[in-house]
């Protein structure tokens, strides 16, 4: 159960509500976010919410039987829309496009990709400075120096930054240079990292785990939300299956399912989802038609020279065509009655 | 390697070509379809096709290194379009829509669904009379009596029939009442059935196996083709993964991959692909945007009373809206440059 | 629910029982096997078995809520042991070892492998004459001529034959030359084949589907049993997963789970289960320790020259060592209290 | 390529070797462990190791083409055996048994389980104080206070501690109270954590990722090794598949495959591997027969009252019987020629 508390609730009122909920055999967790204060009750008992709801200090009360609570659409029906400032929004009502290289490599590289984004009116740039690599001997990114340069160049062009955070100690370090913290597919269940991101006031995009279920993705989002940060985005990026003809199996089923289960924005990453440059376009368009609020993909001036993921990265011609088509497809989706 | 023979080739010429190919350490299989005559050579040796190609009696010769040969687009670049007569086509240049119940249940049921199809200008009806069921105690379909009635009613309305064949002995029995033989996901590697369907002159739609790879699907198609029947359609219908929030994981990645690997038409079954009524629409539209040549889905006057698969079956209101949207999305796809 | 009928039940008594069961909202299926006569009731209603059980003509009545009924151990607690004659048994109380080549190739080949089996006191030989192959251009087996020779040579040496049947029409054809019909992993849900095998009086070994669940395997066995044939063996042979370091993932978890869920014997195929010769031994021994009633594996005089599956086939030295070890491990298992 | 350097190598000699390796188009990583100093060369070029090997300062040089290098058995043929002190060893030559509760709950609980271990001559106790939980509202462990008590009680009884570390900041904090750091299945690719564990001088047991490949597990071990810590143990604990009859699919295939690919000890966790108490015994015994160097399982005085994982936890009677049987099975394995 979720209880949203009134802003001006007194300590006595709150203690009284907690006592009542515990009496009903529910465990209570207090959740204070930048936006509001909640009590989350977990338990199996049956309880009469109407009686409970009449206690003073309660703004709203809902039954949510899922493992995840605060991210559930059963509780918050209106879709969450994140405002990144300067007119950049993620969530229902617009199609959010993010593009950029797998890894930030150099000033010259960023110069070019940012010009490409500006030319195509794309306001969000992805790019990794801390790279999770399965081998310790692979290139692991430019680190904080790269991020600072990234930030400075992006600010000058009105571009917002999406970049991966890999560990707790980086959260604070990266904070001032990032617009959206990305949690990678290998860290979807790095619970300490999720806890730490609960403490920041910037949006967090959580990628689905390599073989993570939809429910686990929602539970990971619940970690960040219950840690205090309501600014969340979920990302479908393909799951691991037996099929070897593609890098991953992009699970577009997850899009309509997530859109019904949660109020959070859902974006699709077709680059990792199929892993083959030629097919990124159709999968991105399919993602929009499945209901995605945004598309995040890899682009590079010369994909064949990219430090990583070149085989799934679009060049600027392909990228420009994709952006054009994405907007056409999204416009049609807005017209259709689903 | 594939060698297409001239129509008027002499027995001596053919024997001579075979001898040359065998000399090059290739195993030769003679394939005679309703359309043409081929020699398929399988082997690992390196051979000079130009020299070989000069032998009299050879119309065309191609190297195809995949396990599958005749269904490969490396050999036949132009997409195959199947003509079912009466203006019904499957393949590039149009979007083929097939709808109907999981199981044929009664004359009254068919009457209603056919009227719905006619009203919406849909020319292909799916519906099972032989039903593969995991339990021997479940309803297994109306059998041949159902099919005969299905055929009679469909003919009267200009509707073409897509229905599943489960075993070799049914191929002949069903032949005159069927427009497209469907091979179900549990029979994708029923090689005797595929062999038998190589002998008929009607289109065969092969569904991807429950955990079948894209390559296995193509090899199954190769069985039918090499058995003599070039009229083939491939169907992506979801694969089995760890995810339990959907019935199957619709692998739309398979659509652009198949479209590049083979010249055969590719259709998508969103009903089995996600298994939840509310989400059939977005997945069907996504399938079109991924590049599908057709959509096949389940519809029923009263899904909640259907003999099987009711939970993933659209009612007529939903179905009409889907048909309308499918055509809009397909029209947009035709406009876009991919 | 399962009702075992008395042998001398009258038609009236039977009709009366059926009427009572149907009245309780259960669908009734009559099952007559070579061993006994049953009524299987499927439905969701709650019914008082004690009252029902007092009707004349009922020998025994059990509630079985699983999808599968007659193969369930909830009903028949005592393990099924199959007697193949000449002292060859499969089931609890002994460890059944079957070995032989993937494909029957020639008289000389069989001569050698049979001598190897006789030398090591192994009484069951596996070997395919109808081979399911993913490509139509691969070797598909020697067919009935091969089987007849196989049968003649095996009979002369007191060896029993386990071989794969691929389609309905082969069941009758193969019947007199086979001791155990094997249903391959691609045919686990070939329901027509299962139905047909319900009509024979010889044991049927069903391999788990390539991505078949344990429950589906039991339901496939239920097909054969409810078709009239109680002589069944289940075989774990590895499932398809994302792991590519082995051919399949041998799911030994299935062994103790199946042993509790069903009264049927359970055997393990380590050759397909891991697919790499060097590791067949440890996986076979692990299979015994997990509780298998038998092991079936591939052996060949010269694995590197085998017509198929050479990479997972043991030579005679390895095979002899495995047989020796299997018996040691089984002897220890008999001593231990689990 | 791996180059083991001589202990007394000069800076000039080392620089010279590095220069030669780089000239051959290899990237060089210097690895200094508590045991020795290495250069790891990664690249695709072909190089003559004999010439290179004659440079002064090189003790040993090997070509290792796998992604993982230092953990490969191609380089170090002799199995690694870890000595935890007080006669407790992990690796070939003995069967290492670890048991204990999922979570450390209380002094009374530890008292009982430790007595059980002492009674059965088990020297390693597992037990979590930091618990990764998919829901933020679940019990997350007693933390450092629990660990300190655990350590004090274990030391008094000659018991060694295996416990999970979840994040970088805990490594130092936990260091003095832990005998084996466990990296959980959700952290197998938490590369920062692996890096940090490269800096400690205590053994690290890495569990296979929830859907991690065998190769990824080895690469994760390579992280720790190349970070400076050679004391590694790998643990097979089941992978995620489509099968729902068990919690995970214990992949015992991984045991012989890992034993050949790496010199590191391999242990099996049957509790998580199957997730059902009744079947832990057969899977543990199967694990030994597959070649495991150790078994780690969950035990609790009253599994039904355990704070977590009760459904897969053995009570003391079951645990004592398992320990007895494990030793019998291991003794037999030592006798057999594989």
From TrEMBL, chains A, B, C, D:
GO terms for biological process: aromatic amino acid family biosynthetic process. Keywords: Transferase. Its EC number is 2.5.1.54. GO terms for molecular function: 3-deoxy-7-phosphoheptulonate synthase activity; aldehyde-lyase activity. Residues 83-328 form the DAHP synthetase I/KDSA domain. SUPFAM superfamilies: Aldolase. PANTHER family: PHOSPHO-2-DEHYDRO-3-DEOXYHEPTONATE ALDOLASE. This is 3-deoxy-7-phosphoheptulonate synthase.
């Amino acid at each position: 159960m979720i209880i949203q508390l009134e802003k001006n609730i007194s300590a006595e009122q709150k203690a009284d509500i907690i006592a009542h909920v515990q009496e009903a055999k529910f465990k209570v967790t207090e959740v204070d976010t930048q936006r509001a204060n909640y009590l989350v009750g977990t338990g199996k008992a049956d309880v009469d919410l109407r009686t409970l709801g009449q206690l003073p200090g309660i703004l709203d009360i809902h039954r949510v039987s899922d493992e995840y609570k605060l991210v559930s659409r059963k509780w918050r029906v209106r879709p969450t829309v994140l405002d990144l400032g300067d007119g950049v929004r993620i969530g229902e009502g617009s199609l959010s496009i993010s593009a950029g290289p797998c890894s930030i490599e150099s000033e010259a590289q960023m110069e070019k990709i940012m010009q490409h984004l500006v030319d195509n009116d794309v306001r969000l740039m992805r790019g990794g400075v801390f790279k999770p690599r399965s081998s310790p001997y692979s290139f692991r990114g430019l680190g904080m120096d790269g991020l600072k340069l990234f930030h400075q160049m992006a600010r000058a062009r009105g571009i917002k930054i999406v970049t991966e955070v890999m560990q707790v100690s980086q959260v604070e370090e990266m904070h001032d240079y990032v617009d959206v913290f990305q949690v990678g597919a290998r860290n979807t269940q790095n619970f300490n990292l999720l806890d730490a991101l609960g403490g920041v006031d910037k949006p967090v995009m959580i990628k689905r785990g390599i073989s993570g279920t939809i429910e686990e993705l929602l539970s990971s989002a619940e970690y960040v939300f219950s840690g205090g940060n309501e600014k969340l985005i979920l990302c479908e990026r393909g799951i691991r299956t037996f099929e070897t003809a593609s890098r991953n199996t992009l699970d577009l089923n997850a899009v309509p399912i997530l859109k019904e289960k949660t109020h959070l924005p859902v974006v699709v990453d077709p680059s990792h989802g199929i892993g083959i440059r030629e097919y990124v376009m159709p999968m991105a368009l399919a993602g929009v038609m499945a209901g995605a609020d945004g598309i995040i993909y890899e682009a590079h001036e010369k994909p064949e020279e990219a430090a990583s993921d070149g085989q799934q990265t679009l060049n600027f011609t392909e990228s420009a065509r994709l952006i054009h088509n994405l907007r056409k497809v999204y416009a049609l989706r807005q017209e259709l009655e689903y």
